[in-house]
């Protein structure tokens, strides 16, 4: 059965472009195109779409309010349509917190051409959303690690994610104590969005979260997020680790690529690093995690039940790259237990 898609956008041009993209995809079928939330509500009730593409900025009722109401009344996978602006990034992150599965960023200029060129990615995001799991909000919980017993600059944590990853990453690192080992993160996001995301994580976490600039010495108590459209790598510098940004081509279909980050951890940190692969569409990170595992790193994959999209972790598990498979709410403690065991001279 084709995936039923409802397009909701106040822009007639965007409605037309998205509708054409959906119609041309054999796996999808367009059930309607709504110009505002009121029409969309009627269409949702009438057609019961499998996926909704939803504009954030709409008249009468904005996309965030409509999303919040709909997720309570009739939970449906939603892919947000956002602008590449700071305001758009803030609203998009809020939408993901409210339960949206993914987002599509409209280019600032040449919207029609940009969206059309992005058609294959849009179709893949809609397909992934149709098979995603809803209903995994972050729960407030206590961690047993108020502080790390064994700390030092030689231990590193690498976390990679894609679809559903913004909330999953938050759930993991907001439970890290202030002296947790340095953490590097690659989440598939466009430029600008990563700046806003890093700032939001920093406001929620005990550790300090920054968007990576390149050249930083990695320090305990800090997390560094790969900027959009840059690969994040770690290199050894004497007794320290430093970050580098790579402007090379996409790897595994992405930039930043989790594979690039994990491969650098395997090469320069080996058994001193822990690799974590969270929810996400596709295969990025699986080969890099396998490399880390081969070089002696302890590696964790999020389990299928708690993933929004079980793609990247599934591939890593199939490649036997995961030391452990854990539900999301157990990963942060498992990481810290592992690092304390390594620091004490043992391995789990």
Automatic annotation (TrEMBL):
Coiled coil spans: none
GO cellular component, one term: cytoplasm
Modified residues annotated as 4-aspartylphosphate in this record: 55
Leader sequence residues: none
PTM note: Phosphorylated by CheA. Phosphorylation of the N-terminal regulatory domain activates the methylesterase activity.
Gene Ontology terms for molecular function: phosphorelay response regulator activity; protein-glutamate methylesterase activity; protein-glutamine glutaminase activity
HAMAP family according to UniProt: CheB_chemtxs (MF_00099)
Protein name in UniProt: Protein-glutamate methylesterase/protein-glutamine glutaminase
């Amino acid at each position: 059965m084709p995936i039923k898609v409802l397009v909701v956008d106040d822009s007639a041009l965007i409605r037309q472009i998205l509708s054409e993209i959906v119609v041309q995809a054999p796996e999808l079928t367009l059930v309607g195109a709504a110009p505002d939330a009121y029409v969309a509500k009627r269409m949702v009730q009438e057609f019961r779409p499998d996926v909704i593409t939803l504009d954030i900025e709409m008249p009468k009722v904005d996309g965030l309010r409509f999303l919040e109401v709909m997720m309570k009344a009739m939970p449906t996978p939603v892919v947000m349509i956002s602008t590449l602006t700071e305001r758009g990034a803030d609203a998009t992150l809020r939408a993901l917190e409210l339960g949206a599965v993914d987002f599509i960023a409209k280019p600032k200029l040449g919207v029609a051409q940009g969206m059309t060129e992005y058609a294959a990615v849009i179709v893949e995001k809609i397909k992934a959303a149709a098979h995603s799991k809803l209903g995994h909000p972050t729960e407030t919980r206590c961690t047993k690690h108020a502080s790390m017993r064994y700390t030092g600059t030689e231990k590193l944590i690498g976390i990679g994610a894609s679809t559903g990853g913004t909330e999953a990453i938050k759930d993991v690192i907001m439970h890290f104590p202030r002296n947790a080992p340095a953490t590097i993160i690659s989440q598939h996001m466009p430029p600008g969005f990563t700046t806003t995301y890093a700032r939001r994580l920093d406001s929620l976490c005990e550790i300090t979260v920054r968007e990576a600039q390149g050249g930083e010495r990695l320090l305990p108590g800090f997390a560094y997020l790969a900027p959009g459209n840059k690969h994040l790598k770690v290199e050894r510098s004497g007794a320290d680790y430093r970050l580098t940004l790579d402007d090379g081509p996409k790897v595994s279909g992405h930039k930043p690529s989790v594979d690039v980050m994990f491969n650098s951890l395997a090469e320069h940190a080996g058994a001193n690093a822990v690799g974590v692969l969270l929810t996400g569409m596709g295969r990025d990170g699986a080969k890099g995690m396998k490399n880390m595992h081969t070089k002696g790193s302890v590696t964790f994959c999020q389990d299928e039940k708690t993933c929004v999209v079980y793609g990247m972790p599934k591939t890593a598990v199939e490649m036997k790259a995961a030391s452990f498979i854990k539900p999301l709410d157990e990963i942060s403690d498992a990481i810290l237990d592992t690092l304390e065991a390594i620091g004490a001279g043992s391995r789990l």
